[in-house]
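Hi L., both proteins are below.
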Amino acid sequence: MNAFGGRSAVFVDDREFMEETLDNVLRIYCTHNMPNWSLPWQRLKQEQSTSTGFVIDGRRIITNAHAVEYSTMIQVRRRGCDRKFQASRYAVGEECDLAILTVEDEEFWEGAAPLAFGELPELTDDVSVIGYPVGGECISITAGVVSRVEMTVYAQAEKELLSIQIDAAINPGNSGGPVVNDDGEVVGVAFQSLDGSDVENIGYVVPVNVLEHFLEDVRRHDGKYLGFPRLGITHQHLESPALRGSLRMSPQQTGVMITGVQPTCPAVNVLRKGDVIMKVDGIRVANDGSIPFRAGERVALKYYMSQLFPEDKTEVELLRDDSVMSVTVPLYVSDFLCPVHFGGRAPSYFVLGGLVFTVMSAPYLEHEIEEGAGGLAHLLSTAEHGVRASNDEDIVILTQVLAHEVNVGYEGFSNMQLLSFNGERVKSLKHLVRLADANRQEFLRFELFRDRLIVLEAAGVPDATTQICKDNSIPSPRSSDLVFDAANSRTTASAVAGDEMVVPPASREEEEEEVEDPQRQPHSAGVNGGKPPRQPSIPGTVVPVRRKPGGRAGEGGTAARRAEPRRGAGKERGARLRSAVAAAGASAVALGGLRIEGRDFLPRLRTGAKRRSRGGGGESGERKQRTISWRGG
């Protein structure tokens, strides 16, 4: 056994060195204030959670993004210390589920030493997971072995990046903790685990190279995280000889065929549907879409892309119309038509005559599924298959109608996509607000999906909106990001009524704004440390299991999220709607690596598995849940 509990023949005899490592692994206490997706002008009751973090150079602390999501207060405590120190978020990478925290108090840094980074571990290497999981107050060390190094979907933001699979348990509270090798060097960050009755002790680690990519991204862009880039294409494997023959490929040529190019990415000017990508920066692409990784190992092409940065370009050798050519393709960071998260921002909303509009997002759809809402098929299909036609495009939905005499007859309308306003196609929620502010017509016509139509008399809308907001305790008829300037904050009241007025022009910034196996994807540890749902077992079938983020452990609340990658490989599968459950739960709940007490809140889970709520050690409940998967733009 080595100093960290490993089984390798390599020993760390220096007890002091081990103690120094443990002293710089921190317990993180976080208070979360989650949005109310159904009533976007409100927040839910505050919830508390605990997780793990560790000190790195530059007086920074690394943890999981899901551990500090929607935080209102973050505190950290070092091992053996009786005091908690206030911390703040410096940078957050939702895709890789990583976050950087800082502490201003000089006393905290006295005696602190950054943990050193090691290399990406090999298969069968011994590793140790260090953290503060549920089950006690003291630091915990769990030994394990590297089982796989491959592309995995990170449950926090449904991004596929390189990950390390280990056979050590990652329990609620472990999220954000360092995973070290026999020399005490950090080789990754604990973040999620695979859950199901047929599996045990399968944990996932953000590799050190993904962590390094995150840190370099933040360094390059003055403290701002931009994300992991991609080409912006969809492609099909060319393992069929007939398909390759139809493309006039020689036996020596291999690659993948482009089936679509994202309209908003730079590649749209260079690549075409039907092109065959044979090499990227000189790296040969196989017919199954893989590229060489390490000796005896291959990974998906997107692994290579994920090692680059948004401002980079790549040389692509392709086959087009029987000709081989080389083109330079700028990379970009994808932005899904249906957002998987808002980066800590509250959702936007607009109330007009009792009609409540917001932007379609994964959290909103999860909430509606959880509430048993019907009529979501079109929205889910749009979330799965929709593609942005422009960078400022959103799917605007009518969430509900707050009853008032001005909107009589429409009270039952809900969860419908808004297509146009007064005959003009609505491109985004901001666009709708501008159209409403500039209205000069007698009636307001809202054309919805399935040829539904809402018509309001413009003259009665301003007073009705004011009264409706008062009756429903809505502080403002629009979210703060939709109040364009002081003059416009009153425009709806006069413009909708048809009064003559001058609409201020948009600012320059506003004008510029103007298929893999889904059953093998991870689920995040959510706000209650819960596990992923599982479908009923049917004889003769394989029951899918889910991965959950290794989460935070909570005290008197609910909260949890996912993990971070380094510059590792991302095979970004488009986002998948996770199943959400919000029901009163007895005792403490364990979700992904996050332990929380009270309400059971499960944010981004995967379809399939059965979720068990655990309080401390024993099970406190079990229930099935529905999940939906989708890809957005």
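That was the first. Here is the second:
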Amino acid sequence: MCFSHIKQLWRGKKGCSKLRFINLSGSQYLMSTPDFTGVPDLLVLVLQGCTSLMEVHPSLGHLKKLCHLNMEYCKSIESLPPFTTSESLKYLKLSLCSGLKKFPEMEGNMKSLRELYLDGTSIEELPPSIERLTGLTMLDLTDCKNLLHLPNTIGCLTSLKSLYLTGCSKIEEMPENLNGMKCLEKLTIDGTSIRELSSIVGMKNLKNLSCGRCKCLVSESFKGLALLSNLIELDLSYCNLMDGAILNDLSSLISLELLDLSGNCFVRLPESISQFSKLTTLILSDCRQLQLLPKKLPLSLRDVFAQDCTSLTDYPNQIKVLNSWESGVTIVNSLNSPAQVSEISRMLIFPRNEGESIAMRVTYEHAEGKQVDPLPLTTLQCLKEKEVVLSLSLSSFVFYVAVVRHYRTFCR
């Protein structure tokens, strides 16, 4: 009954003991849900996009066998009944329920719940009873702009692997006791007002930490990150980072593979960056005051993105810079030895004007010096040559380091 015009599914109690699935997604005129008492074996309820839905019958919280509830974009819903006996519920999606200001109490056993989506809602707080969700592996609170804080009981979510707080601009601090969240692997706090990161140092299994646009972070808080030895990806973009000891404090992150420092205010990167022995991707885009790159970069480094680094003038010694010409590209060749051609990355610097799109035609040149006529950019998807020199008419600086075998990705 997707995209139906019904306003009410049925009135009063209706005995449908064999009913397992109800899908009313896109039913824009549905204003209330029925009494579910007569459908005790209901497994899946989909109300996604029921934009006029305002009332949910209390019996919803008593469906013992319900395992999947999707109410995404039910924007008129302001409250939900308590989940009293929802012991089988595994998936609860309330994304973009912009009218929802309060998340209900969880009064019963909800250890089966694995994924909870509250992104884009208007909730101001989470109930302390969230500690009952001990089986929860993913909690999405992205763009909950009215959320003021997280309850201390969130530290009881011992199975949580992913926590998304991006865009929760009113959150200023993380709860103190988070040592119980030993399974947490991904934490995003982009765009929050969080000032300290000290409470996350106990998250020993954290692999992905994103702090982009956290402009309130104090520099002292970065020291604790050095204890996150399993961290693989770290985003510190647009955090107002200045020259200092920030990266020196992070040199013990021996597992780090991706580091995003875009949009910061430092003039140079410290030599200690060479200690990131597993670093494969370094993002420096829009670091407009950056003038110097370290003399030594990690040998593992494959990709460097430095678009709009307009002050960058000095490069590592092992990189050979060829002068650019009016119509073309400056090529920075990072090859140390011809014998390593098949394994070593290349760095290309494209001059680019703001707003100008990538040219759809390129010329390429074989390593032996054979010139080839211009061809469409899409043709590069099929190229398998180990040494290819691209010539593009672009603008400000775009750095792209890529192993030639990755050109397929670059051209898409």
